[in-house]
Design brief:
Blueprint lengths: L6 E8 L18 H16 L7 E9 L7 H14 L1 E12 L7 H14 L3 E7 L3 H7 L5 H13 L5 E7 L6 H12 L5 E6 L7 H6 L10 H17 L3 E4 L2 E3 L6 H8 L3 E4 L4 E4 L2 E5 L3 H5 L11 E6 L2 H12 L6 E2 H8 L3 H14 L3 E3 L4 E4 L1 H5 L1 H6 L13
Parallel strand pairs: 1-2, 1-9, 2-3, 3-4, 4-5, 5-6
Antiparallel strand pairs: 6-8, 7-8, 10-11, 11-12, 13-15, 14-15
Helix pairs in contact: 1-2, 2-3, 6-8
Length: 398
């Protein structure tokens, strides 16, 4: 499903955090300043060893973990490495995830944010999760609503004009009213983008031990969770946000280009511990062993930290085209499917498309696309699973 051309996205993984949140199952852990210094040096080596096949980088995304644990100089050195290999687009989007609890206070916070902007960061993604301090404490977050507010206002004063705020619903003991309170308090600040996710209880996390199979009242019931989901779109529309993906809302012209690229098949290269890539028809990821990563010799072209290398078949590319593309509110275009694969969408998925249209979960558009209805979005995970394992006919008609 990879789009052809010279477009490329770059992902930088920062596996460090101050303290792992109770719900988090990402590859992240606390680390000393010295270990972070070693990691940045190795990360720059990895980036500079990458080959350039004539691509222009349209987006760079620092994800984690907690990228704002890195100093502005460290972020600058990583971006200098990216610039040494590729040409950055004139309108390049350079995003960095940020935890308000890592910036310090007063002048220290201001200097740190100013340093990130000078380094080239032009889009911040701030992990708020809730405007309720009790909920933040329960989640294991290291910041308060007040700290977030100070960081947000400081970023605005320093000229950051593209900010995302992450929020999380369906939390333990959360009510529809407290969720709506978080939504409104955040939307009133008018960030350009809001990501609103439902909590997923992941195995291996402290939350799994506490809440897996929890009794009534510990977690919102299914009906309450659906009400929260529905109210999210209604409330954010009041403030001028358009839903463009299942869990993402943006002001006009402010969608996250990096994520849209991921959902539409733009190739990307991931750097850092455990980072995933999709490039030249292959999916692969880096080693998750920190010692192995830090010992890697990137000057040796035969040396590789790549793991789980998978060359996608046509069937797998079709799966991903539907599975990822249907997350977008614009849906998937039949004409683009035919252009990429040489088959009509209905030839491969006609049975599923007709069934879900009949049930009111999918709908066709005048632009020749298929997309989720509002009812379909609420059961999207179940629907998407039905588009796995496509069956290509033995012989094309005509």
């Amino acid at each position: 499903m990879e789009k052809q051309g010279e477009q490329l996205e770059v992902y930088i993984h920062v596996p460090f955090c101050v303290k792992k949140c109770e719900y988090c199952d990402f590859l992240s852990f606390p680390a000393s300043e010295e270990l972070r210094r070693q990691y940045v040096a190795k990360l720059c080596e990895e980036v500079r060893a990458a080959e350039n096949h004539g691509e222009c980088v349209g987006t760079v995304f620092f994800g984690g973990g907690t990228p704002s644990l890195f100093t502005p100089k460290q972020i600058q050195s990583i971006l200098d490495s990216v610039r040494a290999v590729w040409r950055l687009a004139e309108d390049v989007e350079i995003s960095m995830e940020m935890n308000p609890g890592t910036l310090g206070y007063g002048e220290a916070e201001r200097e740190r944010l100013a340093g990130y902007r000078e380094a080239g960061i032009n889009r911040l993604s701030i992990g708020l999760q809730s405007a309720n301090n009790e909920e933040l404490q329960l989640l294991g977050r290291i910041h308060t609503w007040e700290q977030f507010l100070e960081s947000y206002r400081c970023a605005r004063e320093l000229g950051f004009a593209n900010i995302n705020v992450d929020l999380m619903s369906a939390l333990p003991k959360q009510s529809r009213e407290t969720w709506e309170h978080s939504l409104r308090k955040t939307a009133e600040l008018a960030p350009e983008h809001i990501s609103a996710y439902s909590l997923i209880i992941e195995e291996g996390t402290p939350f799994y031990e506490k809440y897996h199979g929890a009794g009534e009242g510990e977690l919102p019931d299914e009906d309450t969770e659906r009400e929260m989901y529905a109210r999210t779109e209604e409330i954010l529309q009041e403030y001028g946000y358009e839903r463009y993906e299942i869990s993402n809302y943006a002001k006009e012209g402010k969608v996250c280009r990096h994520n849209v690229g991921y959902w539409t098949g733009v190739p990307y290269l991931g750097f850092g511990l455990g980072a995933a890539s999709y490039y030249q028809g292959q999916r692969f990821s880096n080693t998750r062993d920190l010692r192995e990563y830090l010992a890697a010799d990137f000057s040796d072209k035969k040396h590789s930290i790549r793991r789980e290398v998978q060359t996608l078949s046509t069937e797998e590319k079709m799966e991903e085209f539907l599975f990822l593309g249907l997350r977008l509110m614009q849906g998937v275009r039949a004409a683009e499917f035919r252009e990429r694969f040489g088959w009509d969408l209905e030839d491969i998925y006609g049975k599923q498309l007709r069934q879900f249209e009949k049930w009111g979960l999918l709908e066709g558009t005048k632009e020749g696309a298929y997309r989720f209805t509002r009812e379909g979005i609420s059961v999207s995970n179940s629907v998407l699973c039905e588009f796995l394992d496509p069956q290509i006919p033995d012989k094309k008609d005509g």
